Hints:
The complex is a heterodimer of chains A (110) and B (111).
Chain A: E1 3-6, E2 11-14, E3 19-21, E4 23-26, E5 32-38, E6 45-50, E7 56-59, E8 62-65, E9 75-77, E10 86-93, E11 98-100, E12 104-109
Parallel strand pairs in A: 2-12
Antiparallel strand pairs in A: 1-4, 3-9, 5-6, 5-10, 7-8, 8-9, 10-11, 10-12
Chain B: E1 3-7, E2 10-13, E3 19-26, E4 32-38, E5 44-52, E6 55-58, E7 64-70, E8 73-78, E9 87-94, E10 100-102, E11 106-110
Parallel strand pairs in B: 2-11
Antiparallel strand pairs in B: 1-3, 3-8, 4-5, 4-9, 5-6, 7-8, 9-10, 9-11
Amino acid sequence: GNSVTQMEGPVTLSEEAFLTINCTYTATGYPSLFWYVQYPGEGLQLLLKATKADDKGSNKGFEATYRKETTSFHLEKGSVQVSDSAVYFCALSDTEKLTFGTGTRLTIIP
Amino acid sequence: SQTIHQWPATLVQPVGSPLSLECTVEGTSNPNLYWYRQAAGRGLQLLFYSVGIGQISSEVPQNLSASRPQDWQFILSSKKLLLSDSGFYLCAWSFSDYGYTFGSGTRLTVV
């Protein structure tokens, strides 16, 4: 079946540091890939997505590239802010359902 | 525009009591609907999904059940709650390539 392996947290960075959160997947076929973000006390919001190999999703300074050869979809941001503190989930979608990774808690300190 | 409603936002229930969480969507027809659970310190686990009225697929066997009586309505139920049912429950919908949209969640504490 489909699965998503996500970098274990928690991750703590200083403001303006470079961020990478690793995500790899196992799937049959050609899934779509997503990053969702959960701010404290809230539900999930779509951060970015990519629907085919070599696509790059981007939003709010975050980027991730769909790498079929390495089955990866790593999340990156060049300069993080305190407001980026949240839990980040990598996910993949087949035709019927969304499968999530375990989530990575990110804390940015001023 | 499409909207998703989930309630209640928080719920405290005693062990052995019944549960009913409701999720409704507006502005779309025949969406796929989902119930996820996020236990404390853990990721998101898919519990049930539905591709149409009366069609329910269960991902994890447990004492929870789901029903879809209307195209726009998805209900999560239990006859007798366990302590291990505590968590954050999220409803979501998807349609074609539109992507997935989540409700605001219900935090359930079983005491």
